Amino acid sequence: VQLVESGGGLVQPGGSLRLSCAASGFTFSSAQMSWFRQAPGKEREWVATITTGDMAAAADPVKGRFTISRDNAKNTVHLQMNSLKSEDTAVYYCRANYFGYYWGQGTQVTVSS
Fold first, then answer.
1. What is the 3-state secondary structure (H, E, C) of 42-78?
2. How far apart are CA 65 and CA 49, in angstroms?
3. d(C-alpha 111, C-alpha 71), whole Å
4. Residue 67 and residue 89: Cα distance in Å, rounded?
């Protein structure tokens, strides 16, 4: 199983970023996919999940601003992040739930003027 995140970077408050997680080594369409994030000095926290049936859920701090989606044809899950705030600064991780949990290496998102 391999998960590779991309799309992170530096963005100004109010801006947008789209994260991607490319998956390989398992049957992607059969896996529930999630995004987590970890800010400096804080525990890793759940951001959003999308099920195999395309049902999505997001944590309260990002609800209405972040959208998770998946493309089973490309074995990819995305996180569209809009109206970014400084408190969204963190390393963002992709996780697959496929007979166990698998994590990517993370991608840094920094929201700053």
1. CCCEEEEEECCCCCEEECCCCCCCEEEEEECCCCEEE
2. 14
3. 27
4. 17
Token pair of 94, please?
A: 């992709």
φ/ψ (deg, to 5) at 6: -155, 170
- Looking at residue 8, what is its pLDDT? 97
**Length in residues, the chain:** 113
Instruction: Render pLDDT for 38-64 as a digit per residue (tens, 0 to 9).
Output: 999 999 999 999 999 999 999 999 999
Nearest residue to 79 (alpha-carbon basis) of 50, 112, 53: 50
Name the token pair of 53: 């049936």
Q: How far apart are the first and last CA of the chain?
A: 37
Nearest to 3, CA basis, from 28, 30, 38, 39 = 28
